[in-house]
Design a protein that fits this description.
Blueprint: H1 8-28, H2 31-35, H3 46-68, H4 77-90, H5 96-116, H6 119-122, H7 128-161
């Protein structure tokens, strides 16, 4: 691991904390917010974006498992975009309960795998395994923060029109 890098247990704890912050956000959403699509240029409702994070934990876990086993993994923007598009088409009516359950289950599996990795496992694939763990740490928080900001901006606009 590079200087300043985190160990597997720290990555796992940070992934779990970010997931838990997203779950807390979900519980605080109104039904109107849950079904809204507040992100400029992104037609997905909050429900689909939240479930996307859970879906991403699944493919990230699979890729990490493959890298730790010494097998090559093809990860690029085209692969990720295709997975995201497939998910968006399939998850159009995800319920809050289903999204939370998906987040909890896929996040727990991700955390369990990451915590079980060694430093050598994190270095697998020329450091790609560790970069995937880093993505998993940021992913939930990035989407949550983006949605919170968009919802707040929308509320400010609504208040300005009142």
């Amino acid at each position: 691991m590079a200087e300043g890098a985190r160990g597997p247990a720290e990555y796992a704890a940070q992934i779990a904390a970010a997931r838990d912050r997203l779950v807390g956000f979900v519980h605080g959403c109104t039904e109107e917010q849950w079904r809204s699509a507040p992100l400029d240029g992104d037609p997905r409702p909050v429900a689909v974006v939240v479930d996307h994070v859970a879906d991403a934990y699944e493919y990230l876990t699979g890729w990490l498992r493959e890298l730790a086993a010494g097998r090559p993994v093809e990860v690029n923007s085209d692969v990720v975009d295709a997975l995201n598009a497939e998910h968006a088409a399939a998850a159009t009516d995800v319920s809050r309960a289903a999204a939370v359950q998906h987040l909890e289950q896929s996040g727990a599996a991700m955390c369990e795998l990451v915590a079980s990795l060694s430093a050598a496992d994190l270095a697998a694939g020329e450091g790609r395994a560790e970069r995937l763990a880093q993505v998993a740490v940021r992913h939930a928080d990035n989407h949550r923060a983006e949605i919170e900001a968009a919802l707040a901006a929308g509320a400010d606009q609504q208040a300005g029109r009142s």
